[in-house]
Design brief:
By secondary structure, this protein is mainly β. The chain starts with 7 loop residues before the first helix and ends with a strand. It has a domain at 43-141: Immunoglobulins (Immunoglobulin-like, Sandwich). The protein has one helix spanning 8-19, and strands spanning 43-54, 64-74, 79-85, 92-99, 107-114, 118-127, 132-142, 145-146. It contains 1 helix and 8 strands, in the order H-E-E-E-E-E-E-E-E. The model is unreliable at 1-18 (pLDDT under 50). 12% of the residues are buried. The strands form 2 sheets. It has a 5-stranded antiparallel β-sheet with strand order 4-3-6-7-8, with no helix packed on it. Strands 1-2-5 form a 3-stranded antiparallel β-sheet, with no helix packed on it. One of its GO terms (cellular component) is plasma membrane.
């Protein structure tokens, strides 16, 4: 406490400095601080409302194409990501992300390719700068058709 001012408030500061194991200094500031908060609505909900198998020509028959019609509520998304996983939704097989431009109503069609027949878990995520929302579906693709 050598060299410390003799008023009662400084003794607490000196004790804090001596208790600091790093030997550094503490800076105490008093006053009022302000901050601005912006509340944004965000993307509130995503729904897969339709799944349609796309008929292919014989030369394209090795892949099955499915169109997913998706709606959302809240703010309009700027990107969409589709994760195709195993039926338990645990092991990811592919991830595709694309920017999208929606100007009025949140209604979009997402086309995805499936290389082989099987059952898949589909996660579709719509996002913008401040939020994300997810919809999932289980789909069984069987040679160009699905259930």
């Amino acid at each position: 406490t050598t060299g410390a001012p003799s008023n009662s408030d400084s003794s607490a500061i000196v004790e804090s400095m001596e208790d600091n194991p790093d030997g550094g200094c503490h800076i105490y500031r008093n006053g009022y601080y302000g901050s601005g908060i912006s509340v944004v609505e965000g993307i509130l909900e995503v729904n897969i409302i339709q799944m349609t198998s796309i008929q292919m020509t014989e030369s394209q028959a090795e892949n099955s194409l499915v169109d997913f019609v998706v709606t959302c509520q809240g703010s309009l998304p700027t990107d969409v990501c589709t994760v195709v996983s195993d039926p338990t939704c645990q092991v990811s097989k592919s991830v595709v992300c694309d920017p999208i431009a929606i100007s009025d109503e949140c209604l979009l069609t997402i086309r995805r390719s499936f290389e082989e027949p099987g059952t898949y878990c589909i996660n579709i995520t719509l996002g913008d700068d401040t939020s994300q929302a997810l919809a999932s579906a289980l789909i069984s693709v069987n040679g160009g058709e699905f259930t």
